[in-house]
Each structure stands twice: as structure tokens, then as C-alpha cells.
Amino acid sequence: MSISELLEQDLQQATIPESYHEEDPAELEERVWSIKERFGNKLYMPGHHYQKDEVMQFADDRGDSLKLAQISASNKEAKYIVFCGVHFMAETADMLTGNHQKVILPDLRAGCAMADMANIDQVRKGWKIMQDTFGDTILPMTYVNSTAAIKAFVGRHGGATNTSSNAQKMMEWALEQKERLLFLPDQHLGRNTAYDMGIPLDKMAVWDPREEQFECEGNLQDAKIILWKGFCTVHDKFNVNHIEALRKKHPDINIIVHPEVPWEVVRESDYDGSTSTIIETIENAEPGTTWAIGTEMNLVNRLINENPDKEIYSLNPFMCPCLTMNRIDLQHLTWSLDKLAQGEVINQITVEEDTAHYARLALDRMLEMS
Ligand code: 13P
Ligand code: SF4
Q: Which amino acid residue places its CA nearest to atom 6 of ligand 2?
């Protein structure tokens, strides 16, 4: 959803009563537990790893973007899915669940800065220029961190979605279908994955949707990958100086980052992977080892608390949580559940059927291969 669409939704969102901010959080927590118990398996609450602990404690399942898409697709019994994550994840859940199921996002303002960097008008315009430049040689592929409209565009053109945990497999598949690949909207995940596959930087072009022009170190006609010039405003805050400073202070430190960080940061790190890979790596690490993690701060703090036998730092000592993930707080969660308990559905996410049909083509191609 673009910023203007989000602002419009913002105006449409019923306003949370002030009383929720005045109530004792312990009472709100008690209400959430009791409503969950009352609804049983008719209510399902998945939570992304970047959610705050005050919300995550209620999650029926925790996951990275791939797992959340998979479990949404397989859950048939819940009538209400209260999604603890951001807008594009709730849209995906709506498209992958049945008509008898309703997806609720406790605060409609929980968007994603990266997803906002590609709107469908820009994509259509850019695609036309790409077709004029390269002919019919490009398969579009989108990171799930994108609007349903962009997923539908990709689905219509034979492409698929991907997440940080299957990006390489999906890129390999895409390059078997067509000579070139357009990767939306995260240039860093696209560049990091393509480089791991052995594609050199001079075979990657960047499409700047604002300037409506390509940037390319090599010959543009040789480009295998066209990267959309988008990025995550959270993961963009890690740089090589952070790594150098930590290695100087802790010579034995292991550095693990999410592949949404810039290319040069991944190159200087020891490991990279999705949120689930980061969690698994830290949990399986030897006690007494030292780690720096380059990802969102709610997750880093949770890993620090849950792994007291390891010394863990944030790669950037001044890092903040993702502000849009943090929109889902105890107050908004309780409010949406209170309303459900009163028989009212607020903040429902629905994707119009034509868009959902084509977006599902892109999502299903990914899910079949994952
Ligand atoms: P994953 O959990 O799939 O690694 O995604 C990270 C992210 O930025 C979600 O917004
Ligand atoms: Fe979007 Fe980045 Fe926040 Fe994930 S961490 S929701 S990609 S802004």
C-alpha cells in the first residue's frame, strides 16, 4: 500500500478510545487471554518475529514471512485471524485464506517503508520502459514485502513472490524462465542473492523509479538482474564501520545480518539469513560465543534475553525497532479483540478478488517450490 493509500486508510480507521492508554496493561493482558480462551481455535493470532514482546506473548505461532504465509494458507478452522505483523503480511494472509475467514490488522497504520517504495503506477510505467529497452526478456519477481497490486502484476506476467528464506531458489527458477529478472522492491536482497549465485555486480542494473532511469556499472544490455531501487529503512542503518568497530573490540565476534542490509555489509559479515535463520543460528551457537546481529531491534533484544549463555550485541548500537511493526501494541490488540468479542469486526484487511486472483498465482508459485 502506498503512503497516500495508507493515509486514506488511516482516516478510515476507527479511532482507538483514549481509555485503552489509561488502563493498567495487566488488565488489558488479562482480557486478551480471556478472549483468546473464549474463541478457541476460531481465533488465530500469528506473530512476526519483529513484533514487540507485549504482543508476541499472545501469538499462536511465530514465524518469518515465509512461515506466516504457509501457516495462513493451511489454517482452515479460524474464523478470525488477528495478524500481528504489518499490512503486506495481512494482505497475503487474506489472499491465502478462505472466504469464511476474516483477517484483522489491529492498527491499519502498520505499513512497511520498503513496500511503500514501489507503487503499481510506477511499476507499470517502469515495465513499459524495460520492455522497450530489453524486449520480452524479463520475468518480474517480487519480495513479499510489496502490495497485493504488485504481487498481482507479477502473477499476471508469469512471475512469483519470494521471501528472504527462499530468494535464491526463486531467482534460480526465474532465470530458467526468462533471460532477465526484475526484482522488486528491495535492491539489497536482490543484489545479495544474485551475487551469491555468482552474478557479478556489473551484470546488475538498478531501476530508479523516481528518476525513471537505469543505473549500471557495466553495459546495460548485458544486465541479468534489474533491481528496483527500494530498501528497508531499518536494515539500511547498518554499515561496515559498525563491523570494524565491533571486530576491534571483540576479535572473536561472529556477525550475522539479515539480507536486507546493503551488499558491502553482508560481504564483511560471517553469516546472513532470514529472521528464522538468525534465530536458529543464535540458538544453536556454542555457549560463551560472542555475536553481533544486524536486524530489527525487537528481535535482537528478544535473542539477548533468551540466550543469556552468549554475549550478544546489536550490530548498530543506536538501532531502534521497526516503527511500523511497533504500531501493533497491547492497546490496539486488546481494542480489536474487545470489538470481536462484542460481535464487531474492525480494521479488516480485504483484497479485491481480481487482484487477489493474480497475486495468488505469484504466491502459489512460491509456496509450491518452498
Ligand atoms: P523475514 O522474517 O522473512 O526474514 O522478513 C523480514 C522483514 O523485514 C519482514 O518485514
Ligand atoms: Fe518493512 Fe523493514 Fe519494517 Fe520489515 S523491518 S516491516 S522491511 S520497514
A: 112
CA dihedral 191, 272, 69, 161 (to 10 degrees): 10
- pLDDT of 4 > 80? The answer is no
**d(CA 62, ligand 1 centre) in Å:** 12
| 52 φ/ψ angles, rounded to the nearest 5 degrees | -70, 155
pLDDT tens, position by position, 318-350: 999 999 999 999 999 999 999 999 999 999 999
CB 36 within 8 A of CB 52: no
Ligand 1 neighbours (beta carbon < 6 A): 49, 64-66, 112, 145, 163-164, 232, 260, 274-275
Nearest CA to ligand 2 atom 7: 232
Nearest CA to ligand 1 atom 9: 65
Judge if the beta carbon of residue 117 lies within 6 A of ligand 2: no
Residue boundaries of the structural domains of the chain: 3-111+324-352, 115-233, 235-314
The dihedrals phi and psi of 202, each to the nearest 5 degrees, come to -75, 0
- CATH 3.40.50.720 assigned to domain 115-233? The reply is no
Strand 225-228 with 213-216, pairing: unpaired
Q: What is the pLDDT of residues 176-201, one digit of tens each?
A: 999 999 999 999 999 999 999 999 99
Residue 230 in contact with residue 147, Cβ under 8 Å? Answer: no
